[in-house]
Specification:
Length: about 180
């Protein structure tokens, strides 16, 4: 089995729900230009501190406004262990309270987020419950991850993954719930 860094991303030290067992808390602090935050710096720093030696295969991220149960974590980790070099994305519905759109959309898509775009190999994705392989994290750090702020971090990581031509995989059977509705 591959070594995986598991992080629960909390906004401004405010956990919405309990952190699952085996996950480290990673706090993202707001910028003076709230609601922007140093999400890229938090991710890069968390990776530097937690990756271990030998280095972890990647990082499994769970946003603070997303709930998962132990079975969903197991399904995600099974997918990761089957292909630790791919990006693994759990299908999550994002709600209008979060997106400011008129209706819910999937947190992954080929080119855009919508209700109709639920591909098995997404071109864009959010971090709701997502695994990033080591190669992608290192490429993002090299591209300036530490300077990237919310809300653009997910989009930039997706773009780097496309540039690296990394395989992406929607993890079917894993159904986390986005709580910001």
């Amino acid at each position: 089995m591959s070594n995986i860094v598991r992080v629960r991303i909390n906004w401004d030290h405010v956990p919405l729900i309990k952190c699952p067992p085996g996950f480290h808390l990673l706090n993202v602090l707001p910028e003076p230009e709230y609601p922007f935050g140093r999400k890229g710096l938090a991710l890069a720093s968390g990776w530097d501190q937690l990756r271990g030696t030998p280095s972890a295969a990647g990082m499994l991220m769970l946003d603070s406004d997303v709930a998962v149960d132990p079975e969903e974590v197991a399904i995600m980790e099974e997918a990761i262990h089957a292909d630790p070099l791919a990006v693994h994305i759990a299908p999550v519905r994002l709600w209008p309270a979060s997106t400011k759109l008129d209706t819910w959309v999937w947190g992954h898509g080929l080119r855009k987020f919508s209700q109709d775009d639920d591909p098995d190999a997404p071109g864009i994705f959010t971090f709701c419950f997502t695994y990033l392989p080591e190669r992608l994290i290192i490429a993002c750090v090299t591209a300036g991850l530490k300077t990237w702020t919310y809300p653009l971090v997910d989009q930039r990581v997706s773009k780097v993954a496309r540039g690296l031509r990394l395989k992406t995989h929607t993890v079917r059977g894993c159904a986390p719930v986005h709580l910001n509705y």
